[in-house]
Amino acid sequence: MEMLNPPIPNRAIALIDVNNFYVSCERVFNPKLEGKPVVVLSNNDGCAVARSNEVKALGIKMGQPWFQLKDLARKHGIIAYSSNYALYADMSNRVMSILGMFSPEQEIYSIDECFLDLSGFKRLNHTDYGQQIRQRIKQWIGLPVCVGIGSTKTLAKLANHLAKKNPEFNGVCDLNSFSLKRQTDWFQRIDVGEIWGIGRRLAPKLHEIGIKTAWDLKTASPSPLRARFSVVMEKIIREINGTACIELEELHPTRKQILSSRSFGVPVADLPGLEESVSLYINRAAEKLRRQQSIAGVVYVYIRTSPFNPRQRYYANGIAVPLSMQTDNTVPLTKAALWGLRRIYRRGYQYQKAGVILSELTPQQYRQLNLFESTSTTEVDKKSTKMMNIIDQINARMGRGTIRLASEGFKQPWKMKQGNKSPGYTTKWEELVCV
DNA sequence: ATCACGGTTTGCA
DNA sequence: CTAACGTGCAAACCGTGAT
Questions:
Q1: Distance in Å, residue A231 CA to nucleotide B3 C1'
Q2: Which of A31, A54, A118, A315 has its CA 20 to 30 A from that of A23?
Q3: Is the CB of A138 under 7 A from strand C?
């Protein structure tokens, strides 16, 4: 039977992704790390979240706890960094603003990935264009990126995976330019778990029913799989067949809930310590809340001991504290969170983590008026929003925490571990050392 | 039975 | 020296009480 080539797709979506982002950022400022095995650890120096190729080759998995790797690390001279989010965020901003020059439509998907819509550039060779992107990011920022192109976001992701894993693509893979035969050959070699949205739980389940490769999923019929799994699965199948189900989101979608949580560097047993940390997390969450111009109606606060330590009693609890009036002001949000915290706190436990969630979020302009509220109260409220915005601006310019509530404490002994953090090369003068 | 709800679990990146 | 395991989001799920 004759193999027909697919119809020329009318869309071209590119997914640009920085290789081993955090590790690559460290290497920009410390070129001696080039060619050496390097990992960057998660908050609290907990798990490996970014690995150089040398580290991946040693079989170290994403998210593996660092303490389990100490021996291996010593043996192979692995260099481990604490995560330096100020540096990575700044590098990310630089990369994204350059990438934005390559298309009028950009979705910043994560700290190191973005989609560009190239559909308008019909007369351009997209593979060449991808190479230009790579070259410019390398030259202007010093970071290595790969480019994947396809007719949907899921295909662009898959193309990016191919570009990353197979040197013959030289960092750019455009699935739109593939013949059906070539695409089939590649898809049959890709494990179904590599597809965007198929994670470590779904992949084995699909394997069980005989769907092992990207090709198997592409040619599977959507409706029974939707029944067996979910509507998300059906969308994935349609997407890898070239039907767009996931649109490019240029505006950051406003969140329905905002969470801020952190593990402690050392266990915390006393209430004041927990109060300080909860206070800080509320501050972070409230900053995010105001950035997306929302107000919150419920503050959820939770604490827990370590779930990994079998030698001590486990305790975890949380409470939802409704606010009488929705707000974005740190002061009442903190009050509510601390009130909740005192309700769930039990003495005699070694707490390992605390967190807050802001929910019942609505846009600032739809602020719900209380039945018993006078207009003057809303004026007061508007002023408080204004004041919080000014505080945000000062903190943005002078550094986080320049103005904050005293309830956050000053010594913060529970602060997370960061044993080996690199300097804030691009954001903090005082951390730069001239040699 | 069915629905709305809230809290909990699952899953992904 | 020892002990040590991230975060943020949405969707699915599930039990409950009201209708």
A1: 22
A2: A118
A3: no
Question: Does the nearest atom of strand C lie within 7 Å of A283's Cβ?
Answer: no
pLDDT digits (tens, 9 = 90+) for A315-327: 999 999 989 889 9
Cβ–Cβ < 8 Å for A73, A60: no
Residue A193 approaches strand C within 7 Å at CB: no
Q: 3-class DSSP state for residue A125?
A: coil
What residues pair up with A354 in beta bridges, in sequence order? Answer: A262, A303
Q: Can you tell me the mean pLDDT for A225-239?
A: 86
Region A80-94 average pLDDT: 94
Q: Is the dihedral of CA A50, A53, A55, A58 positive or negative?
A: positive
Percent of chain A with pLDDT over 70: 94
Write down which residues 375-394 in A have CB closer than 7 A to strand C. none
Q: pLDDT tens digits for A123-178?
A: 999 999 999 999 999 999 999 999 999 999 999 999 999 999 999 999 999 999 99
Q: Which of A17-21, A118-122, A344-348, A387-391 is predicted with the least confidence, judged by mean pLDDT?
A: A387-391
Q: Which nucleotide is nearest to A307 (CA to C1')?
A: C5
Tell me the CA–C1' distance in angstroms for A218 and C19.
45
Strand B contact at CB of residue A147, distance < 7 A: no
CB contact set of A304 (below 8 Å; sequence gap of 6+): A314, A315, A316, A317, A351, A352, A353, A354
Distance A298 CA to B6 C1' (A): 13
**Is-contact A248 A154, C-beta < 8 A?**
no
Residue reference for tokens 């310019």:
A397
**Cβ partners under 8 Å of residue A421, min gap 6:** A81, A82, A83, A84
Q: Which nucleotides of C are covered by protein (CB under 7 A)?
A: 3-13
Q: Is the CB of A201 under 7 A from strand B?
A: yes
Using the CB atom, is residue A358 less than 7 Å from strand C?
Answer: no
* Opening angle at CA A204, ends A198 and A207, nearest 5: 100
